[in-house]
Every structure is written in C-alpha cells, then in structure tokens.
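Exercise 7b. Backbone tokens:
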C-alpha cells in the first residue's frame, strides 16, 4: 500500500489549486452537475484511482475512498473513487434480488 500512496509515484495526492476550485464548484453544484463534474475528472486522477482500486484487491467504493482519504489523496480523487463503478466488480457481483 505504501507504493500506491507514495507522493513521488502518484502525483494526484497533492491538492492542486485547480482541484481546490473544482471541489468548491462540486460542493455548490446540484446532484446532476456533480455527476458531470466527476465525469470531467482529469485522466491522471481516474487512472490512479483505478490502479489503486485494482492493486488493493478491488475494495468497495466506500472502503477505497476512506483509504485514499486517510492516505492524503485529494478530495477530488476521494470523491471520484466513491462514485466510479469498477466493471470487474460489477461483473463479479452477486445477482440482485427482485
């Protein structure tokens, strides 16, 4: 886990000024606007969150976002981790009751 949370390996851990502004926009946005903001997350953050998710053994979104938060990841990465749906996890999920 140290490798994933190493500041030198993963640049998305440090909050950038534009990410801080994006989080302020996110907090003021409606739920529909929040989804659009999460879709427009920079590719580097998306890639890093997905890489961390796989490397950590495909934890649940709530668990992954907590791990990233404790590890010092940006709030944008934490929120993206909570929102993103892993296709591997979805494929292996138990069928839902109807």
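Sequence design result:
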């Amino acid at each position: 886990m140290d490798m994933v949370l190493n500041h030198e390996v993963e640049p998305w851990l440090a909050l950038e000024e534009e990410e801080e502004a994006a989080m302020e926009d996110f907090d003021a946005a409606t739920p529909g606007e929040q989804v659009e903001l999460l879709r427009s997350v920079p590719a580097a953050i998306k890639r890093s969150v997905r890489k961390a998710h796989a490397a950590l053994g495909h934890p649940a979104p709530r668990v992954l976002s907590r791990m990233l938060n404790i590890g010092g990841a940006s709030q944008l990465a934490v929120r993206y981790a909570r929102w993103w749906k892993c296709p591997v996890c979805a494929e292996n999920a138990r069928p839902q009751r109807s």
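Instructor comment: The helical segments are 17-28, 31-39, 43-55, 61-70, 75-83, 87-92. The chain has six helices and no strands.
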